[in-house]
């Protein structure tokens, strides 16, 4: 490295190599993420098709696929409009039910907070008689009920209210 410009050329080559490595790493991360998203979407689409067959075989009549509703929960009396879309609206024995399809290991469980909250939200927003959790991979249709607990005047600090009675949480 006897020439004065040799150090500059080396520094530029190192910086260019680092920049190229960064660009390639970002491209690979984006490709991997989009591949996972495509795989998840394909699994969900196949699950919804299998769920439709499962629902019809169980005696449910499909009224709508991907039904949408506008709903306005209120904050301090002011409506906050939002649009919701469920997987299916079905009917059986004169009842209107929202059917939500879940695939995978965690999602079809009420232990998953997001699933539990979504089903409760659909129950209210669609003014349905009930909600169904459909697990096509397990061949299962579960009717989910959200009983309303009796009102409690006051619960002791640190207590959870359940079915009208206070119960201390561990």
What can you see in these coordinates?
By secondary structure, the chain is α+β, with helices and mostly antiparallel strands. The protein has one domain (48-168): Alpha-Beta Complex (Lambda Exonuclease, Chain A), CATH 3.90.320. 39% of the residues lie in helices and 28% in strands. It has two helices and eleven strands, in the order αβββββββαββββ. It has helices at residues 4-57, 113-125; strands at residues 61-65, 68-71, 74-75, 78-79, 82-85, 88-92, 95-101, 130-135, 140-144, 159-162, 165-168. A five-stranded mixed sheet has the order 1-6-7-8-9, sandwiched between helices. Strands 2-5 form a two-stranded antiparallel sheet. The termini are far apart. 16% of the residues are buried. Residues 163-169 have low confidence and may be disordered.
């Amino acid at each position: 490295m006897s020439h004065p410009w040799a150090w500059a050329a080396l520094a530029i080559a190192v910086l260019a190599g680092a920049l190229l490595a960064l660009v390639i790493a970002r491209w690979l991360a984006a490709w991997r993420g989009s591949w996972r998203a495509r795989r998840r979407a394909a699994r969900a689409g196949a699950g919804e098709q299998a769920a439709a067959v499962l629902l019809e075989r169980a005696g449910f009549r499909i009224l709508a696929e991907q039904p949408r509703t506008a709903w306005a929960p209120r904050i301090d009396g002011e409506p906050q409009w939002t649009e919701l879309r469920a997987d299916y609206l079905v009917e059986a024995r004169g009842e209107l039910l929202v059917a939500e399809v879940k695939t995978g290991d965690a999602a079809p469980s009420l232990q998953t907070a997001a699933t539990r909250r979504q089903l409760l939200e659909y129950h209210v927003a669609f003014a349905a008689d009930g909600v169904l959790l459909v697990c096509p991979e397990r061949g299962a249709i579960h009717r989910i009920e959200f009983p309303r607990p009796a009102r409690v005047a006051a619960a002791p600090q640190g207590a959870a209210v359940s079915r009208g009675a206070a119960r201390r949480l561990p």
